[in-house]
Structure formats: structure tokens, C-alpha cells
Specification:
disordered C terminus; 26 helices; alpha+beta; 771 residues; 61% helix; four-stranded antiparallel β-sheet
Length: 771
């Protein structure tokens, strides 16, 4: 790390040029090839997947995504008025010609001499179902936008036209640009308050922009060879921006500390990278491991999201340990990282030595004196927030929770008003007939389904002796996200269908988008324990190797679970119980997104490891030097308290800024992570962890001797000593001929073995590090 820091510092122009070339090249490549995102919820073996496969085998048109064009007359007009009907029919004819659309239903048509049921009883609301030739992973966004514009062209003073469906929802997803911009602005304000220097505040932001810009472009390119969902760039922006700023912040803080202690700019960069830089690499590695832990779910939606986010984290780590030392190599930048008042104080008072002072030093002494009381307070806070997690219900929110201004929300409300809430999420009951005699069981099946108290309407296709596959459309009485709809799906599968299958060769499956989301939630619940076990085990092993301790990694694992549980409690309270989600414009009470636990736990475990590594690595560094646990914990907390809380505040601002996107799932994600980071940094790392480590004493650093011998040696914090007198031979590996000639001349002039390095008083020589 010292060699890397020195090379980047001395070759700052080259490093900066390389990063610019890579940034521009990756942008150009991403712009040229575009993305190929694939949001796949493939769940082999589930009822809904089997139903979809049967529909595909019967008719490729029936297996494509379906969306709705919802028509609502205004001013007393009726859907059946001749002028309105003429306008609607002309519009549907145009929609039918849109690329990618294979069929469009006519609400005015009759089935067997009876109305189609697509016009409400009061004659003011109707709908047409549009079927695409593929699903979300293959449908072109341009085709969906053409559908929207074509349908809404029929709107006038007497007719309102809205569109609903999963594909339509994709056209309304806000760009992350505004939220990222606000996140960067909030981070800049926090950094200005923390550093008191504009240059010091801008450095972490610039590094994060470079890393995240390249990382996002690489995700776009990777989508052509890997299954990466459309959510991946949002997730990457969310996590990459936060950790990118945080990692640079930790290194810049250590650089400032080195300059204040009297080191030259070059030596300060070397020590910063040889200490905090190591911790950044280690922390980034733990974040990537946690994100890639989503591969254990064996679900492409989550695996692709984890890979995308890991790419972003890897690029910001690389920027932090190469681009940042190069930027600090420019004298005007390095000089102004410390505020003007700080530079005046340094010139007047000289290098700062001794124990840290300030607010966090005083707080560390309070923790040292009252560890039992503060530990109890922290446990009570986390325990209270943990309670709602015990009643979490995983599922999928429907379009009734979209912002009220969107066409999908308006279409959803109109459909519920005209035909009941269940029409927004009908079930497809698909029967596979093994013999001609099975056809006799279909009427019984239809009757049994119609008799269910939660069923509103049942439609079935005609059945003949030659029929091999029969579909029955079931409209529930309740909304797709309702717990009653979930119970209906489970009841049909467990109680209604099995008795009717007995004595026949018929197999019946319950499918449809609502059943797909229910199966997804069930599969996710089964994956969470394995995922948690893998991530915690890997994190435990890494921390045990790094800090040569059993208690430290064990405590970290427990803290991670505690923070995750408490943050989920807040999510359940806001979104499942509905306390505040409506006021945020994110709908009322509903289930927590089924994919949220794994994805959020992956990121949270990584971030929690970050703070644990930065806090404990400084404690361990002090312990190695003094073997005084009380002092090690006190000094470690005092020196990292401000930077950890500043980093956490930045992350909180970044995560909360994603509320601007206006999507409920992303809002759950943002609020959950913001709460988790706040609890982790301000309650766990500043209260519970130091309190427990004060109580445990020397046991914190105990490791069986036999285990110590077999574990690989890994230094996260470096030795923390100034680099004078060590490592000064390796610059020869990167020196130019002119520099070698100058060094030889300096040795011959001053005598062999004499120390010709500059003293702190020689500011120009110190900052350049060239003598």
C-alpha cells in the first residue's frame, strides 16, 4: 500500500489521465451498445411457473404480458354513446398495429351473445386488454411508450384514457439523476461542516463520481452477458454513491491527521493509504462479499442485482486507493484539504500530538466510565424497534400504491371503481388434462372455485373432448396485495383443487401475476436463512483473521442482525402498518416487498462491517502499541467518532434522497437503509460496541494460540507509524533516470548513509517529497 500510494502521488498526472480515459471510454461504450436488462423472476417448480409454461405451450400470445387501456367517460357521457364508441374503436385499431402487440380486446364485443363484461354496470368505465408478444425482459420500452401515446391520443373533454399494467409502470419510473444530484449536494454540505474546507469536501465527492460513473457504465455493458435486472443501476447508485464518499472520507481524514502531526504531504498520503487505505480495501471486500452472497438465492433477479452493486463498490474502492492519492499529489489540493484556520493554527502551534480532544474524545470518556448503563440504553432502543419485525408480511405492493399522479394509479382506481379491486390482479387457473374423461371434472372445478367467499367472478374457456389445456380466469373480491387474496391463492392450492384432482389424470395450477408474486415471496422466505448464514459466517471469518479475536467478530455478527431487525421493524411500521407511507405519496398499508430482506441485508451487512472495521481497526492499532484495552477503546472511539458519524450522515442523506423517485419499493429500500445506518452508527458503534468492549477488557483480543498459528496473517490497520526511515528503497522501482542521478549526487554530496530527507520546516521540499 505504501508503494502504491507513493507511485500514485508521484505520477499524479498519469493517474488522473488514466481515470479520465477510462471514464470517457466506459461512457462511450455504454452509450454505443446500450443496456440489455432482464428482470426475470424465474422460479422453476412453482405453481405459477408451471401455469405460465402451459399457457406458452398452448398459445404464445396467451403467455405474453398483458396491460389495460382503461376508458372513463366524463360530463354524463356513456361508453356506448356512438361518438365515444367511434373514437374508442379508431384508437384500438391504431393500438393493434403498434410493434410488439399481438392482440387487443374489444370492450364492445359479445361472447356467446352476452356482453364481454368489459363495460361497468353504470356504463362509464370500460377497458381493453392489450397483449404483448413477450414479457418484461424482451418488450422494448419504445413500444410501450408508443402504446401509451397512441391510447391517450383518444382522450378529450368527454373521455379520459389511462393505462395500467407492469409494462406501463416501467415508463413512469423516475430517473435517478435528481436523487443522485440531491444526494451529492447533501453529502457536500455534510463534508463542508466536517472539514471546514471546500477542497476537502469536494475530494470525496469527485472520487465517488469517477468510481460510480465508471461502475454504472460497466453494469450497462455487463447486462449484455449477464442477467441483470433494471433495478441494478438504481441499487448500484444507492450503495456506490454512499460507500464511495465514505471511503474517500476515511482516507482524507487520515491524511489531514498526518499533516497535522507534522508529516509531509507525500508521507501523509503514504500513511493514510497504509492505514485507512487498508481498511477501505477490507471494508469494500466485505461489502462485495455480502452483495455477492445474493448468488446463494440462485435467483437471477437478486444475483444480477448483487453483481451490479458489487461492480460499483469495486470501482469506487479502486478510485479511493489510486485516484485520491493522485489528487492529493497536487500541491494546491493537498494544501487546501485543511481549512485556512487549521493551516494558521498548524503554523502557529506546530504539529499536533497526544490523545485526541474534542466532543468525541469527551464522549469516549463517558462511555469508559458508564459502559453498563449505556449498553442497556442501546439494547432497549434496538429491542423496541425490533418488535414490529416479528409480524412482517412479505409480498408485492400493487399499483394502488403508485403516486396518485401516475396513469397506472388512475387506471387502477378506475378499474377498482368499475369492476371491483380484484380485477387488477386476476388469477389464471390452468388445468392440464391427461385424458378425454378429465373434461368432465372442469365444470366441478369451476363450480367449486365460484363458491369460494373471496371470489367475485369466474370465466372459463369452452371445453371439448380434444382439449388438453383449459384456463379458468378467477377474479378475487380483494386487491392483489391484500392478505385475503393471498389466502385465496393458498386455499385454492391446498383445499379446493387437490380433492378434484383425485381420481383423474388432471393437474391444475394457479398462476397469474398475483400468484407469481406470492410464489416469489414464498421462495424468498426459504432463501433468507441460507443467505444470512453464509454472509455472517464469511464476515466472522474475515474479522477473526483481521483482528485476531473471537469476541470482536461474534459481536459484529450480533450487531448486524440487531441493526437489520430494528430497521425492518421501522419498515413494517411505516409501510405494512401504514403509519406515514400515505403522507409520503407511497400508498397505504401493504406488504413489504418480498425481495427486500435479502437485498437490504446484503447491503446492510456490508455497511455494518464498514463501520465495525473502521472503528475496531483503530482500536486494534492502539492495542497493538499499548496493550491497554481501556485506552485502545477510548482512543479508537475518539479518533473515529466524528468520521463515522459524518460518513453515516452522508449515507442517510443519500438513501433518503431516493424517496424522490416516487416508487414504493425503492422508498422501502431507502428508508430501511437510512434507518439502519443511523442506528448502526449512532447507537451501535458509538454506544453499544465501545461499551461492550470496555466491559470485556482484554478478552476482546483473545484468540486461542493454536488458531492464531494456522490463520493467515492479515493487517487491516497497518502499523500506524510515520513512514520516515522505512520503505524508502521501493521508490527506486518507479524512479526515472533523472531522479536516480539526482539521488546519487545527493548521497555523494552529503556522505554515504546520511539522512538528506527534508525536515517539516522546508515546506516546498516536504510537499513535493522529491529530495
Amino acid at each position: 500500500m505504501a508503494t502504491l500510494a507513493r507511485w500514485c502521488f508521484r505520477n499524479r498526472g498519469k493517474v488522473l489521465l488514466i481515470w479520465f480515459i477510462v471514464l470517457i471510454g466506459s461512457f462511450a461504450g455504454a452509450n454505443h451498445w446500450g443496456d440489455s436488462y432482464n428482470t426475470s423472476f424465474s422460479m422453476p417448480g412453482t405453481d405459477s411457473t408451471k401455469a405460465l409454461s402451459l399457457l406458452q405451450s398452448m398459445d404464445v400470445k396467451a403467455s405474453g404480458d398483458t396491460d389495460q387501456i382503461v376508458l372513463h367517460t366524463l360530463g354524463g357521457a356513456k361508453i356506448t354513446d356512438p361518438a365515444v364508441e367511434q373514437n374508442v374503436q379508431a384508437m384500438l385499431a391504431k393500438v393493434d398495429k403498434v410493434h410488439g402487440i399481438v392482440s387487443t380486446t374489444d370492450p364492445y364485443a359479445t361472447v356467446g351473445g352476452r356482453p364481454s363484461g368489459a363495460i361497468s354496470s353504470d356504463g362509464t368505465i370500460a377497458y381493453s386488454t392489450v397483449t404483448f408478444s413477450g414479457n418484461q425482459s424482451t418488450i422494448q420500452l419504445a413500444d410501450v411508450k408508443t402504446l401509451v401515446s397512441t391510447a391517450q391520443s383518444a382522450a378529450n373533454s368527454k373521455l379520459e384514457v389511462e393505462l395500467g399494467g407492469t409494462d406501463i409502470e416501467g415508463t413512469e419510473q423516475s430517473s435517478t439523476g435528481n436523487s443522485e444530484g440531491l444526494g451529492f449536494l447533501a453529502a457536500l454540505v455534510v463534508l463542508l461542516l466536517a472539514f471546514g474546507s471546500l477542497v476537502g469536501a469536494l475530494l470525496p465527492v469527485v472520487v465517488a463520481i469517477f468510481g460510480l460513473g465508471i461502475g454504472t457504465s460497466l453494469i450497462i455493458l455487463a447486462s449484455h452477458v449477464l442477467t441483470i435486472p433494471a433495478l441494478a443501476p438504481i441499487l448500484a447508485a444507492l450503495i456506490g454513491m454512499g460507500v464511495g464518499i465514505d471511503y474517500a472520507l476515511f482516507i482524507v481524514t487520515r491524511f489531514r491527521s498526518g499533516v497535522r502531526s507534522g508529516l509531509s504531504h507525500e508521507d501523509a498520503v503514504i500513511r493514510a493509504l497504509d492505514t485507512s487505505g487498508r481498511a477501505v480495501i477490507f471494508a469494500g471486500t466485505t461489502v462485495c462479499i455480502a452483495l455477492l452472497g445474493m448468488l446463494t438465492t440462485q435467483m437471477s433477479f437478486l444475483s444480477g442485482s448483487g453483481i451490479g452493486a458489487a461492480i460499483a463498490v469495486a470501482t469506487v474502492v479502486l478510485a479511493s486507493i489510486t485516484l485520491l492519492p493522485a489528487l492529493l499529489g497536487f500541491k494546491p489540493v493537498a494544501k487546501r484539504v485543511i481549512s485556512r484556520s487549521g493551516r494558521r493554527k498548524l503554523r502557529a502551534s506546530g504539529p499536533v500530538t497526544g490523545e485526541p480532544t474534542g466532543v468525541w474524545a469527551r464522549w469516549a470518556k463517558v462511555v469508559e466510565k458508564r459502559p453498563k448503563v449505556l449498553a442497556l440504553v442501546a439494547v432497549v432502543i434496538m429491542g423496541v424497534l425490533l418488535i414490529p419485525t416479528l409480524s412482517v408480511r412479505l409480498g408485492s405492493s400493487d399499483q394502488g400504491n403508485d403516486p396518485s399522479s401516475t396513469t397506472t394509479r388512475k387506471a387502477y382506481d378506475l378499474m377498482a371503481q368499475g369492476f371491483g379491486p380484484g380485477v387488477n390482479g386476476p388469477l389464471d387457473v390452468v388445468a392440464q388434462l391427461g385424458s378425454s374423461s378429465d373434461a368432465a371434472a372442469i365444470p366441478k372445478l369451476e363450480t367449486a372455485i365460484r363458491q369460494q367467499s373471496d371470489v367475485s367472478t369466474v370465466f372459463s374457456a369452452p371445453v371439448t373432448a380434444e382439449s388438453k389445456i383449459v384456463t379458468i380466469l378467477v377474479v378475487p373480491k380483494t386487491a392483489p396485495e391484500s392478505v385475503d387474496t393471498t389466502n385465496l391463492v393458498n386455499d385454492l392450492r391446498s383445499n379446493v383443487i387437490p380433492p378434484l384432482e383425485q381420481g383423474t389424470t388432471m393437474h391444475v395450477y394457479v398462476g397469474g401475476i398475483t400468484a407469481i408474486y406470492e410464489d416469489f415471496a414464498t421462495v424468498m422466505k426459504s432463501k433468507v436463512p441460507t443467505f444470512i448464514a453464509v454472509v455472517i459466517l464469511l464476515g466472522f471469518l474475515l474479522l477473526m483473521i483481521a483482528f485476531r479475536s473471537l469476541l470482536v467478530p461474534l459481536a459484529a455478527a450480533l450487531m448486524n442482525l440487531l441493526a437489520a431487525g430494528a430497521s425492518f421493524g421501522v419498515i413494517v411500521w411505516i409501510f405494512q402498518y401504514g403509519h406515514g407511507s400515505d403522507s409520503l405519496g407511497l400508498g397505504g398499508a401493504g406488504p413489504v416487498e418480498a425481495w427486500l430482506p435479502v437485498m437490504m441485508l446484503a447491503i446492510l451487512f456490508g455497511l455494518s462491517m464498514d463501520y465495525q472495521v473502521f472503528l475496531v481497526s483503530r482500536m486494534h492499532e492502539e492495542w497493538v502499541h499499548t496493550k491497554d484495552n481501556r485506552r485502545a477503546v477510548r482512543v479508537g472511539q475518539a479518533e473515529t467518532g466524528r468520521v463515522i458519524t459524518a460518513a453515516a450522515t452522508i449515507m442517510i442523506c443519500v438513501f433518503l434522497s431516493f424517496l424522490l423517485i416516487g416508487q414504493r419499493p425503492v422508498a422501502e429500500f431507502g428508508i430501511g437503509l437510512a434507518v439502519a445506518v443511523a442506528l448502526d452508527a449512532f447507537v451501535l458503534r458509538m454506544l453499544l460496541v465501545p461499551s461492550m468492549m470496555q466491559l470485556f477488557g482484554k478478552a476482546n483480543w483473545w484468540l486461542p494460540s493454536w488458531l492464531d498459528r494456522i490463520l493467515p496473517k492479515l493487517s487491516v490497520e497497518g502499523d500506524g507509524t510515520p513512514p520516515e526511515g522505512r520503505g524508502y528503497l521501493d521508490p527506486v522501482l518507479f524512479a526515472t533516470k533523472a531522479e536516480l542521478k539526482e539521488a546519487k549526487a545527493a548521497v555523494s554530496d552529503s556522505g554515504e548513509g546520511s539522512d538528506t530527507r527534508p525536515g517539516p520546516a522546508d515546506e516546498d521540499a516536504v510537499s513535493s517529497g522529491r529530495r
